[in-house]
Design goal:
Helix content: 40-55%
Shape: globular
Strand order of the largest sheet: 1-2-6-3-5-4
Number of helices: 19
Number of strands: 12
């Protein structure tokens, strides 16, 4: 390789660089270099499958050992958690201006309240957020406006946000959100570009209709791909829709119902009517809905925003007060959806009032029962239990089974209730559960989380109480909750995405079966 090193040095001399490169290329020098660096002869590996030996039958398909730390955390190390920065609220230009002090990048979020939107219009608003990138404004083409956004803004996106609040009655807070990240010196351009993008995009006409046909077709295809890749997400979304409003709205805008919505649009292909509908829905929301403008930045940025908003597109003389979003819930149905791909996603969902200590139970179920029985023995790629606002559920990911996994689910509560838990076990469970509250977030995610806490009425005292409840879990707590879990799971809702063969083998588990 000494000769090659000398030749490389020659190539990087300034004089005659390109002439030397062309000469070496013509001589085949680079081919010789690759041949010397890598194997001259190809290597072929042949794998011959063999049946398991007699003594290996019945063993787990794989075993995954736990990571052992030299100095593991204890419950006493967890403390009370960090306190969030105090914010201020003031009225401005018909909107509510929320400010949290921060340094460095600036985050500017606009939240339009959707409490007065009819449920049947929510999918149209979600579609609106997907087509904005493709459409022109009177002043700029879509490409020009996207270039301006990339030049002046670090990130810019429109989306729907759905949150279940901690206020009385657990209201659903639904928002049409415009989220911008930027440098402070770009604040004026951000307000200008954001207003044009959201308010002035042309939603009718030939160009818009062509964009609708293209985007809706792409969205349908993408959902079909995601059914195969992330079927557990769609299954849990479908089942959760029966139990609380956030779940119902989420399913209408991202789940199987939204897929049917897209299919219906493609079948009708009335893109002119779609444009008129989007224009009408957008106008009602932007002109009338309560608006909260959230700024995460310095005091100087706040002062500048106070002068910019009254003269911007976001200003309005009068807006409808914010209110919780409501939507009728449908009775639970056990459903299976047949998809391509040869893998299955099984979900079991039941209603559960919010209790932070059950996150420890979810961790025990995930790692002390499901991990071994579903993943190691059953051969699924992933599995777990999740406890969130309004529901709890078990799931499998890329699972070779349907019926067998539901049978395994049913045996879990009794096994957990009969176990003994040592102090070391409890420490691992509690530290793992609490660590999810303390997981590091990027600055934009931290800003978004502060906004969510504001709308949902979440205080530092509430978070400290959640933390204390998790740290107070005992072995008796886990056994009692596990024993109670059997009754809840017996009346839970099953939703599976899977292959035709696996679904047909477990068809007695479902009230209806649909091919997607």
């Amino acid at each position: 390789m000494a000769g090659i090193g000398f030749e490389l040095k020659k190539l990087f001399r300034r004089k005659g660089l390109f002439a030397s490169l062309r000469e070496k290329l013509a001589e085949g020098w680079f081919d010789a270099l690759l041949k010397d660096l890598f194997a001259a002869e190809p290597v072929q590996v042949t794998q011959v499958p063999t049946l398991p030996k007699k003594e290996e039958e019945g063993r787990a398909a794989r075993t995954d050992d736990k990571l052992v730390l030299d100095h593991p955390l204890t419950v006493a190390d967890l403390g009370d958690g960090d306190r969030s920065a105090a914010g201020t609220v003031e009225p401005l230009a018909g909107a509510e201006l929320l400010h949290h002090p921060s340094k460095g990048s600036l985050y500017l979020n606009f939240y339009y309240d959707l409490g007065n939107v009819k449920p049947e219009n929510m999918p149209y608003l979600d579609l609106l957020t997907d087509v904005l990138d493709e459409l022109d404004t009177p002043a700029h083409t879509a490409q020009q406006l996207n270039t301006l956004r990339s030049t002046w803004l670090g990130d810019s996106r429109a989306q729907l946000d759905l949150w279940t609040g901690r206020q009385e009655g657990s209201p659903c807070h639904a928002k049409l959100s415009l989220c911008l990240s930027l440098l402070e010196r770009s604040l004026e351009k951000a307000v200008e570009i954001g207003g044009e993008w959201l308010y002035d995009t042309v939603l009718t006409g030939a160009a818009a209709e062509a964009a609708y046909a293209r985007v809706v077709s792409q969205l349908k295809l993408r959902m079909e791909q995601l059914f195969i890749q992330q079927g557990n997400e769609f299954a849990s979304t479908r089942a959760r829709a029966h139990y609380y409003v956030e779940g119902a709205a989420d399913e209408a805008c991202t789940g199987v119902s939204y897929y049917h919505f897209l299919c219906n649009l493609l079948e009708k292909a009335d893109w002119a009517a779609l444009g008129a509908k989007l224009d009408a829905v957008r106008s009602r929301v932007l002109q009338n809905a309560a608006l909260t403008v959230s700024l995460h930045g310095t005091e100087d940025a706040l002062e500048k925003l106070r002068t910019l908003l009254p003269e911007s597109r976001f200003a309005a003389a009068r807006r409808t007060p914010a209110q919780p979003y409501t939507q009728p819930l449908t009775p639970p149905v056990n459903e299976a959806f047949i998809i391509d791909g040869g893998v299955n996603y099984d979900v079991l969902v039941w209603p559960m009032e919010r209790r932070s200590d059950r996150k420890v139970l979810a961790r025990v179920m995930s790692y002390e029962y499901l991990w071994h029985n579903i993943r190691e023995v059953g051969g699924a790629y992933g599995t777990g239990m999740l406890s969130s606002d309004g529901v709890e559920y078990l799931y499998t990911y890329r699972d070779p089974h349907v019926k067998e996994s539901y049978d395994t689910f049913a045996k879990g509560p009794a096994e957990l209730a009969a176990r003994e838990y040592t102090e070391k076990d409890l420490t691992e469970f509690i530290v793992g559960a609490v660590s999810e509250m303390d997981s590091p977030k990027k600055p934009n995610a931290e800003a978004k989380e502060l906004d969510r806490r504001y709308f949902c009425g979440i205080t530092d005292a509430m978070l400290a109480a959640d933390r204390k409840a998790m740290c107070s879990v005992t072995a008796e707590t886990i056994r009692a909750q596990a024993a109670d879990l059997a009754d809840r799971m017996a009346n839970a809702t099953r939703v599976a995405f899977g292959s035709k063969d696996a679904v047909e083998a477990g068809k007695q588990l479902f009230d209806r079966i649909e091919t997607l």
